Amino acid sequence: MAQELPAAWHPLFDHPEPNYVITPAVCEFWSVVTTVPIAGMLIMFQAFRMNFGWRVKVLSVWVFTMYCCACFSHASLITPAFRVTVGLVASQGCFVFSQYSYLVSLQLGNISEPIAVVLEAIIVAAVALIPQQLGARGGHLSLGVIQTPPVFLGLLAAGHIHGYHKVLVYDKLIASGRLLLFAMALSFLEYYLWDAPPSVLPIFGGFPLVHVTIHVVEQIGIYMYALSVCILDAGEMGRVLTFAPDPFLGIVPMVVEDAQMQPLNVLGCNGSKGIKRKYSDSGDLEIDQTPAKQRKLVGGAEWIPVVNVSVLLDPEVRKNHPEFNKNLHELYPDAGVIRVLGEKSCFLVKSRRLVRQILKDEANFSSHPWPDGRVIALNTMTGSKHALVKKLLMKFYSPAVASSFKPHFQNGIMENLRPDKGKSFCAVTWAGRLHMAGALRVLGGKEAESIASSPEMLDQFVQMNDDMVKLVAPLGGIGKPAPGLWPSFAFLKGLVRALPPLLGLMRRIGFGQTYAIMRPELNLYQGPCFPRTGTRQHPQLLPEVPRYFAILDDLLTGTPRDSPRGEATTCLDALRDAEADGLLSRAECLGVLVQMMVNMTTRNAFLNALHRLAEDKELCTTLRADRTKIKAFLHEVLRVDTPLQRTPKRALQNTHLDGTFIPKGSTVLLLLGAANMSPEGCGGDPSQFCPFGGSGSNDKKESLVTFGPGSRQCLGQHLVMMEMESIVEFVLDNAPNLAVDGPTMRVHDVDVGNFGWSTLNLVF
Q1: Which of 102, 427, 528, 559 is the most exposed, having the fewest neighbouring CB atoms within 10 Å of its CB?
Q2: What is the tens place of the pLDDT at every residue in 283-314?
Q3: Beta-strand relationship, 278-279 and 285-286
Q4: Phi-psi category of 452—alpha, beta or left, where left has phi over 0 and alpha has psi -120 to 50?
Q5: Helix (H) or strand (E) holding 255
């Protein structure tokens, strides 16, 4: 007979198992035997032996701890220990759901982690409050009531796995989810049968058949589900794993890694040498020569070429992006889509055909890298709003306007900012001033004219515009993770310093418009699912945001109109009328101004052309002899030295690109520079700089994607081309001895995909 418990002690989670039958030291012997953390130990062993990612390691320790708590709980029948066990079971399901389900992480975006926090709070509250509310057997019933929803969430997550992951783990995840749901169903059956047969058999002093079955099924289900998560996590890092029997434990499944099926882990370049790199697990340098068409994954899924995210963040790659583009085409000549490892559901597109297709396809791809509608600039507006703004402003940026503005740019702006002949000067500063002055003159208004005439004011506007670019980065599609604890103090300091100018901006344009621009819940929190902004990397710049928008608001509202209401003759007047008519909000007008004054990309286009001229005396001689070749030269500069190398899109639908599945919500990073160097339709070597023929690079001028085809084509492209022609003509006329002076440095510390210069001194 079972030993009776003290009358004053009625454990809330006591199960229908005779207590102290086998040994006086253990309350529920059979439950303890079947909760020994076998699954947890095996999972933890594999997680650390195979060096999986931190999430898998956390999960393995979590499962091991969960079973240790379960074992102790059944041995002691201590109620708080049972509460902890139930909480751990439900919480780990919630953790996996928020981290790995495309349903949550991509479609709900950065709020997936806050959702997980809310779910966790619900679980804790349920564990603390529900058991005692369910009556005499409430603790036992609460096991099913609390644990079933997270198990269902896990099964739901398994149903939203995409790509080759689906081939590798879908069946195993579904099977393990069904096993766990079956265990939950048995727990409800046990509640109603309680200690009647067959729940408790009259053998071994009362054998709890149903409860032991629940524990065994749970161990198998959790083990298989955790192994599947291991494969999912490793897949995000480019490792291909599959299930196989363990060589020592026989039929017990483990995960194994087939070295013959591993995709290329890292692709990069070493300065100007162009070394293609692959690193094996041992760290040795290798070259993968296996053709992509011959590479297949387990289960018949197609092999997807990959690039590690660390390569895209590598300063050396940013400094020499054309070399990276060339290596990419050489290594993956037939691949149009390349997966980014280490960034959640991110893909590169290097094919010119695919880039042009995506740029024109607004039904399946959004120009906004975030799904939350935050105000950034013109090109991230919705299609209808973008079309409206272009309709309002196109007449101020037409080819005819650019042509008529050229004499003023050459004789007014360039003469006013002319460098001293024979003296070294900072070409970066000079180019920035030239374009900012041109942009301000096109905006119109006396205040803009005044700023355009002052080098000091121009420098201030250029610097503030660069600061905004650093903070809104990555327009290049990716970004560094948030720094550690100590830099967080600098972040808090930046927030405090930003408060006074933020309140000042709020007084100017109101709380609603300030909120629409700042969106602190989006720009300050860096979630795992979409490109990270630069706010955590550059907290010292946070006060500059409200200051810059206050200055832009002065420009928008403080300048007297140059024309009657409804007859806009300047960009500023057109924006004012649009706001007055309710077509645009103040925040949107200011966002458009930011776009119209973006300086970094155009500045880099100027500098790339100047550097080519300074390094090639023969080129200068050719252009002086035949000025009609200037346009061909500039076209080649924009093709090979594309100033904006990559631009992000976001998938609005589940879609396929060249056979590669792209889940809804994925980041699609268009490699504009690589597309311009694509061998499609070109003869010779398209990576060679050859402005006057010979490489085939100019055979397809209409295919150049530097300014973007389709409705999102750069609004100011004609102004940019006019300015570049004017600068080249100025140099040919006034700098016979043009040369680089001193050391140079490419842009490498801002993740906006720019290819240009941070240090470049010239002598005329």
Answers
A1: 528
A2: 332 333 344 433 443 334 445 677 888 888 88
A3: antiparallel
A4: alpha
A5: strand 253-257
